[in-house]
Amino acid sequence: MLTHNLGYPRIGSKRQLKKASEAYWAKKSTLRELLQTGADIRETNWKLQLEAGIDLIPSNDFSFYDQVLDMSLTVGAIPERYHTIVTDQKKPELDLYFAMARGYQNDGLDIIAMEMTKWFDTNYHYIVPEFKKDQTFKLFSKKILDEFKEAKRLGIHTKPVLLGPVSFLLLGKEKESGFHRISLIKNLLPVYIDILEKLENLDATWVQIDEPFLTMDLSEDEKETFKYVYGEIKKVCPSIKTILTTYFGGLKDNLALATSLPVCALHVDLVRSPEQLDPVLKVIPENMSLSLGLIDGRNIWKNDFEASLKLIEHAKKSKKENRLLIGPSCSLLHSPCDLDEEKNEDSLSIEIKNWLAFSKQKINEITILKQLSLDKENDLVAPIFEKNQETIRSKISSPIIHKPVVGDALKGLTENHSKRKSTFSVRQKLQRDNLNLPLFPTTTIGSFPQTKEVRQWRAQLKKGVLTQNQYDELISKETEAAIKWQEEIGLDVLVHGEFERNDMVEYFGEQLDGFAFTQNGWVQSYGSRCVKPPIIYGDVSRIEAMTVKWIAFAQSLTSKNVKGMLTGPVTILQWSFVRNDQARSVTCQQIALAIREEVKDLENAGIKVIQIDEPALREGLPLRQSDWDDYLKWAVESFRIAASGVQDKTQIHTHMCYSEFNDIIEHIAAMDADVITIECSRSQMELLDAFAEFKYPNEIGPGVYDIHSPRVPSIDEMVNLIKKARAVIPDQLLWINPDCGLKTRGWEETDDALKKMVLAAKSLREEP
Ligand code: GLN
Ligand code: ZN
Questions:
Q1: For 160-206, how does the pLDDT look when each residue is reduced to its tens digit (9 = 90+)?
Q2: Helix (H, G, I), strand (E, B) or coil at 656
Q3: Which of 93, 188, 194, 416 sits most deeply, having the most CB atoms within 10 A of its CB?
Q4: What reactions does this protein catalyze (predicted)?
C-alpha cells in the first residue's frame, strides 16, 4: 500500500507567498526575491512530506496564483489581448501570468483581467480559461517540468500533478459563439501528451491527473471525450503511471465510465461519499489500483482512525494490498497549514485544539493509518490509535458542544418566521416613502479599503499596544472620514465602511457562541488573498448585539441613510469550518436565528436599510443537480428567517458575487430581498439576463465595475454597462454600485472609481 498526497497548501505556513507577491506587485521587491520565496515554500513542503513518510509527494501543486491559470499558461491558452506583453514588452513569463490574473495598467497599456469564479463548491477562486473557436494550444510554460526537476535536485522523486484536459476545458468559457469548448480536445490533447512524454523522459513514474468533473453531471459528449482522452494517453505513453483523481463527491452514474478508463489508479473521495467504496470495489478492474481518499481535505477535524481503518479493511478484502493507495480526500489546498502554529489558548482552547488536524497533521494521519493498517498492535502506533479514539469520544460527549436553549429556539420556529409581513410591491411603496431616493440610487457593497494602518491598529489592539478605547477612537475617526467622503462624492445610501472588521465572517463568529478561532489557520481564497475560516464546533447563539454600535454611530453622523451591514447565515456557514456531527442545515438555522436578532436590533436603533450578504449562497450548491433543491430550500429559508423579523418599510438588501444565476434564479427570487446587488461587470452584464428573463420583481444593483483589480474604469465604460442593464431591467428597479466590497483596494483608486460611478449615475438621471 502506498501513501500519497493530492496537493499541499502553497501559501506558506506564515503566508510567505502572499507577502512576497504583494511586495512584488507593489514594486517593492524583485522578481528574483519572489521566485526564491516560491522555491523555499516548495522545498519546505516537499521535505515535510518526505519526513512524514509519504510515498508519492506531489509537485506542480505549487502556484503563484492559481492552478487553473497555471494550466492555461502551460498549454498556451493566452488570450490575444495579452500577446503584446510577450511580443512587444518582452516581459518575463510571471508578469504575463499576473497580467492575466489581475489585469495590466502599465507602460501605456490597459488590459483587463481574465474572469474569476469559484472552484466547485469551495471558497477557492480560479481564473477562467478563455477559448476561441479556432483556439490552438502549445506547450508554453514549462513549470510542471521545472518543478519536477527542482524536486529531483533536492533528492525527491515527485508525482507531478496536472489538471486533466477534460476538466480544464469544462472549467473554461467560450469567448465567441458557434462552438462548444469540449470540441477543442483534439487540439489540446497533443500538448498534454507532449507534457507526459517529457515527464517520462525525466523519469517520472507516477503522474496525478485531476478530473474533478467525474463527480459531476456529464453529457454523453463529455463522457465520450473522457474515453477518447485517456485511451490516447494510454496508447502514446503506456509506461507512465496515471492516477486519475476525482473529488468533492461520489462518482455515482459516472462510476462505470471512470473505471473503464485505461488509467493505473483511480482516486475516490471517501469523506464526501464513503458509501461509494462498495460499488467502486465491485466494478474496478483487477489491474487498476484504487486510491482511498480518507483524510478530509476540506475540514479541520481529526480523522477517526477506527472509521478509516474499517474502510481500508473493507477495501483490502477485494483489492490486493499492493493495489491500494491512501491519501486525503482532495488536495489539502483547502486546509490550513499547521496546527502547531496555534499557540493562543484564548481563541482556541486546548480542548478544541485537540479535536483538530491541519495539513501537516493530516499528512501524519495518512502515514499513521498506513502503519495501523499493516499492524494495529505495533508498539509505535497502537498508543496513537488509543489516543485518537479517546479524542473522538471526548468530542461526542463534550458539554461545550450541546446547548439546550439553542435546540428549543429551533423547535419554536414557525412558518411566519420566514415571511415578511407584506408582499414586495406593498413594501416597495412604504420603503420609497421611508427612504426618499433618486432614480438609479448609488451605493457600495459595504467595505472600504482596509489600509495598512487600519490592519495595524487591529494588530496593536491584539498585542495590547493599543487599548480598546484608543482603538475605538481610531476606528471612529476612520468611519467619520468615510461618511464625510461619501457625502462629498454624492453617494445616496452610505455604508460605515467595515473598518472594525477583520473579515466578514470572522467578525461575527468572534461574537457568537459556538465558534472558535485560529491565529494562523489561513486558506487561499484567490491569488494572494487568504481567509481564516472560523471553526463552528458547537451550537450557535448570539450573546449580545454585534454591529449596532458602529452602524448607529455612522448613522448619527449623517442625514443620509446608512446601510447596516451583516453577513448572512448561509455565508457564515459556508465560509467556516463546520461541525461534522450534525446536518449543515441545522447549523445554518441556528446562525439564522442569531442574525435575525441582530437585524431587529439594527431596526430598533433607527437603521432603515439593512444588507445581509450572501455571497456564498451559490457556492454551497451541491455538485449534482439532483441535490440542489434540497439545499436551496433550507438555504433560502435560513436567509428568510434572518431577514423577516422587520417592518415592511425597512429595506432588506442582499449581495452576491461571482456566481451565475440563471439556473437558481427562482430561488434567488424566493429570498425576497428588497434589493439585491450582484457582481456583473467582468461578465459585461451577461449575468443580468437571468434576472431579466425571469422578470425578477424586486430591485437590483448590477455591479458596474470590477473591484478585484486595481484598474479604474472610465465613466463611459460604466455608463455603457448601465445602458446594457437598462435594456433588460426597468429603470425603477435599478441600483448602481460596484461589484463587491472595496476592502482589498487602495483609497486612491476607490475615490477615483466611485466618483466616476456617481457621475455615471447622474448623467443617466439627466438623460430624458
Ligand atoms: N459587505 C461585504 C464587503 O463589502 C461583502 C463582501 C463580499 O461579498 N464578499 O466587504
Ligand atoms: Zn461580493
A1: 999 999 999 999 999 999 999 999 999 999 999 999 999 999 999 99
A2: strand
A3: 188
A4: 5-methyltetrahydropteroyltri-L-glutamate + L-homocysteine = tetrahydropteroyltri-L-glutamate + L-methionine
